[in-house]
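Hello everyone,

My group is preparing for a crystallization screen and wants a predicted model to guide construct design. The compound we'll soak is magnesium ion. Before spending weeks at the bench, it would help to have a computed complex in hand. I've included the protein sequence and the ligand's SMILES below. Output in structure-token form would be ideal because that's what our pipeline reads.
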Amino acid sequence: MVKGKITGLSVKDVRFPTSLGQHGSDAMHTDPDYSAAYVVIETDAEDAIKGYGLTFTLGKGTEIVVCAVKALSHLVVGRNLEDIVANFRDFYRQLTSDGQLRWIGPEKGVVHLATAAVLNAVWDLWAKQEQKPLWKLLVYMTPEQLVSCIDFRYITDVLTEAQALEILQNGKQRQEAREEHMVKHGYPAYTTSCAWLGYSDNQLQKLCADALKEGWTRFKVKVGADLQDDIRRCKLIRDMIGHDNELMLDANQRWDVNEAISWVKELAVFKPLWIEEPTSPDDILGHGTISKALAPLGIGVATGEQCHNRVMFKQFLQARALQYLQIDSCRLGSVNENLSVLLMAKKFNIPVCPHAGGVGLCELVQHLIIFDYISVSGSLEKRIQDILLK
Ligand SMILES: C[C@H](O)[C@@H](O)CC(=O)C(=O)O
Ligand SMILES: [Mg+2]
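Reply:
Good plan to model first. Here are the tokens for the complex, ready for your pipeline.
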């Protein structure tokens, strides 16, 4: 039973000096300081439960996101949680369509990252009051309730409310067996933590050996700055993991379209499953061209960690420009917008492999992908979640 009026919203600028050890480094973010705008929501309910939410950022940009969260807070404070969740679609729209703030979005950039932080906190509060982890709250909502959280504006040409309802109603079939499977076995995952771009070969080898010992079977390697380095590092990892294990590549938007194709062809000998973010995250048709060129080599294109909103994901799907769709709990407008993307991916039969390379992301996206398996896709085929190791 949800209850309470939201009486306070605070936000903190939290930063970790990860750049000192080159943790999290890639071809475009060479000195990343993993950071977050961290939101806490309080209510006047007797239970004193608080909602915690965040959005992932890198370094100084956090200051701006914190300002945006403060600018949104008047839309949240003073509202009853019960009213918010009873009409979550409207609440989502109030945040994303505010007359004073919409111009600096809409539904993209800093203001959308801030929306995610605020809404992540609201969902956390709701789940805690219901005494369920978020994935379970979602799994046990009715299809009608779930659909009422989604803003279908701009996507009805590929997904109507009626189609979404049908997908979710079908997802209820044999749901218990999939829930049991998740509780018993968890969700399949890969690690990015062995092969950040700034790591030395020695470090890479040691981390890879440790991960193999721990039982990891899927590894992502950062590429894109220097072809000869990439060849050496991919060989090193492939030699260590063998051909029974999976290798993925991530260029973090480093290349032009043709450059991406020729560069990845040079790395094809290492049999990567996918190339992630080969070019600008906004270049939907460019991703389509790369997808077509690499398909004969058995290499898919993965993207999504910097895909602004559901409208862009819609077009990526329509253009067949990605083969692995990487949702992000902080890039999109929280659970609400991610629900629409999960449903569109189901319609296009594209596997969702969440992005989680960032502080707090692993913890957030696991709920969405477990819900996806139990209630939407019903499949684990070609699906893996990004995990950061300590
Ligand atoms: C800057 C981040 O560490 C980024 O490199 C993460 C990423 O691309 C991923 O996890 O994928
Ligand atoms: Mg990436």
